[in-house]
Amino acid sequence: MKTILSTDMMEIPEGVTVRVKAKVVEVEGPRGKLTRNFKHLNLDFQLIEGGRKLKVDAWFGSRKTTAAIRTAISHVQNLITGVTKGYRYKMRFVYAHFPINASITNNNSSIEIRNFLGEKKVRKVDMLEGVKIVRSEKVKDELVLDGNDIELVSRSAALINQKCHVKNKDIRKFLDGIYVSEKGTIVEE
Amino acid sequence: MPFKRYVEIGRVALVNYGKDYGRLVVIVDVVDQNRALVDAPNIVRGQMNFKRLSLTDIKIDIPRLPKKKTLIAAMEAADVQNKWENSSWGRKLIVQKRRAALNDFDRFKVMLARIKRGGAIQQELAKLKKQNTS
Prior knowledge:
The complex is a heterodimer of chains A (about 190) and B (about 130).
Chain A: E1 3-11, E2 17-21, E3 24-29, E4 32-37, E5 44-48, E6 53-61, H1 63-84, E7 87-94, E8 101-105, E9 110-114, E10 123-126, E11 132-135, E12 142-147, H2 150-163, E13 177-185
Antiparallel strand pairs in A: 1-6, 2-3, 3-4, 5-6, 7-12, 7-13, 8-9, 9-10, 11-12
Chain B: E1 11-15, E2 24-30, E3 35-39, E4 46-49, E5 53-59, H1 68-78, H2 80-86, H3 88-100, H4 104-133
Antiparallel strand pairs in B: 1-2, 1-5, 2-3, 3-4
């Protein structure tokens, strides 16, 4: 059945300007600017109250389009926190016998992983645009990924994780790898 | 981008298909997702699909399903006919009707008038060109 109108609103905090034109949302804040394209959705985006609130409508929507309203709002909220607080993902090296040897290259935007499970193969992972990677000083075997766009930061973390999968072994026993240990923001409150 | 003309009780719409093509009607009730109950001063109240209606900017204040008398009184009070004829959409429709109803002699007169108007424009343009070059 088609619901005549389903709508949802979200508050935009101070210090952030949001512009929306033709389903392309642009968010600007202290840490920079992020844009996201929602042209694949059948929704109406409009700014009300002079830019303080964002209203999303779905006219005559099926269950799926109605569900997409809240996900679109969540995506915009992630853009806003990215542009105000930034995203920091921390990853830990886990190894039983062979210490994972990682070196950061290319002025903090790519990582080389050696000696994973004693293998001779060198794994190189380039970070996506806007993501910086750094080896944590005080904590042993930790990587910190920083960036504004949650999609890019989490995808870079996934790329590192996927490069260090164990092959042809019982993965319940060979637990080596680089795993995401914490998902947070750069600016703590 | 957001919608400004809503389907509501009292919305004035133009019929764009069917027997009553070109007539202004008032939406009096909504039957279901696709159809409305529609009424106008000289038609019998009946249902019409929304696809046959083009919504206008005009809205009048009526209760749901008013009697014909109250409907006509409300339309007079809101001055629907005048507002329509003075709006740009309404004026364009009137001009289209007038042009469609011309006979051959009228079209001849229109041709002469257009030539005369074109001549006057060209004269002014020539004057301005001369001013610019001199």
